[in-house]
Amino acid sequence: MGEDLSKRISEIVPKFLETYDLVHEWEEFGLFERASKSLLHDSGKIDKFLNIPDPRFNSISWARDVDWLIDQVYFSFYWMDAFAKYFEEKHDSSKGPYGDYWPASYYADNCMLGIYSCRDKIALMVWAFYCPFDITKKEEVLDFHKIMKRLNHPVKYAIKADDSQEFWNALNGLNDSVFNKEIAEYRHKKIHRREPKIIMGPIENCHFRDYTFPVLDPNEEEEWKNQMKAKGDSPQVIESVMRNSVFDGVMYRRKSVNDLLVSYSDVKDQIERAFKKTLKVAVTCFDILDSRLFPK
């Protein structure tokens, strides 16, 4: 087993490095590296003043969180793509349809959740520039949409943020369907304990595992019978199925939950588009912070 694992790793690492090189060619990568180094280098000027009274500098702590989280997404993206390439290379389509491949799914999962979290962190970085909030109090740590409302209507929320429009315009680049629909739907399933199943190929011919459901609506019972009729089941078979599906006076049926199936190609596309947007917005917000906290 050790030899097999060693062989697999030796085949996967070159694919990791291939993706690493491709990502480093992204324009967004270069811009973020420049903006991050500039802001965090300038922030070193205040490190010796640990009790600096200006609360705006708390935004630097959040900037470091953003930088740290983006590194995690990079790392996960490299491995996700490497494992996916390895799977594609080794998959024998003659042995059946594509299925899931947990190493690629694991890192795709990290990317999806990390990118969504990074959007909140960038917004909190900006929010810290205007509002000295207590990170230990859950109600004071706002999410992206709540921060956007406050930055867009500072007077309504009694906030002194006359110069917030530039930040708001930048953050609004993350307020689109890529985040609010695609990434949010994936995250929504995760936090509600409905695990998305990433399929490495087309999902049309894939059948997800079945779950048991109570049949409480007479219309659903009739629909079930009609489905069996459409498949060619005889009245005797249908009657037998219905009779044997009752337990303790309640009818149950097994059904697949195919809305949990997602194609890897779709997930990768969503991750790449969302990540590039995240990097672009982070660059703009880092640059604005740098110019306001450390005017040259």
From TrEMBL:
<protein>
    <recommendedName>
        <fullName>Cthe-2314-like HEPN domain-containing protein</fullName>
    </recommendedName>
</protein>
<feature type="domain" description="Cthe-2314-like HEPN">
    <location>
        <begin position="62"/>
        <end position="202"/>
    </location>
</feature>
<dbReference type="InterPro" id="IPR041394">
    <property type="entry name" value="HEPN_Cthe2314"/>
</dbReference>
<dbReference type="Pfam" id="PF18730">
    <property type="entry name" value="HEPN_Cthe2314"/>
</dbReference>
